[in-house]
Amino acid sequence: MKRFYPDHLSVVSNEASWKDFRVLDVDGKRGQGVLVLRDYSQGSVLFRMNGTLKTEMTLHSLQMAPGLHLDDPYFAGKVLHSCEPNSWLDVETRIYFATRDIEAGELLTMDYDETEDVLFRAFNCCCGSPSCRGTIGGRLMKEAAAQRRRRKTPVVVTASKLPAQVYAAVMAERQNYGAAELATASAM
After folding, report:
1. pTM of this prediction exceeds 0.85
2. I need a labelling partner for 19 at 20 to 30 A (CA). Which of 45, 52, 149, 165 fits?
3. pLDDT tens digits along 126-152
4. pLDDT given at position 135
5. Whole-angstrom distance, CA of residue 48 vs CA of residue 4
6. Are 166 and 140 in contact (CB under 8 A)?
7. Partners of 136 in beta bridges
8. Structural element, H or E, at residue 166
9. Exposed e or buried b per residue across 93-123, where buried means at least 16 C-beta atoms within 10 angstroms of its C-beta
10. With pLDDT > 90 as the criterion, what percentage of the chain qualifies?
């Protein structure tokens, strides 16, 4: 059986299958994405994420808990972002579900702000959704933006405004960045 994942990773139940999906180059702006090859109805199980547990965040990892990430550069890490996604990931089970009916030929999407406290790299969204939020950076950035909209005044996220465990995880993640990036992030 042909797999998306390398042989050193054990096969998991509901693992993504070549008969249901393809990873392809979408365009220069979005990179690779996951093409759906058959129809799915709303609520259907799409696949279960696989990967390698790491303590550091990567471009293709999923935050399982503060300081613990499941790195999947082979398949799930290729699911593109949308502010109105067609799939949702249950982080505890690592299972992706269809949030609406999905037709063959669509790209699989999820909302990155729903699974990560802080993204490896924030980006300007190009999903084209009427409810597009613009900048995508993780739950903490999304919550801060929502507070700014409610208050109409800037909100600065500091250690005193974050749960200690979340702040410690964010600080640990930042240790992976260079000194120049840290100075920029600290100035925010």
Report:
1. no
2. 52
3. 888 898 988 888 877 766 666 666 665
4. 82
5. 12
6. yes
7. 123
8. helix 164-174
9. ebbbbbbeebeeeebbbbbbbebbbbbbeee
10. 48
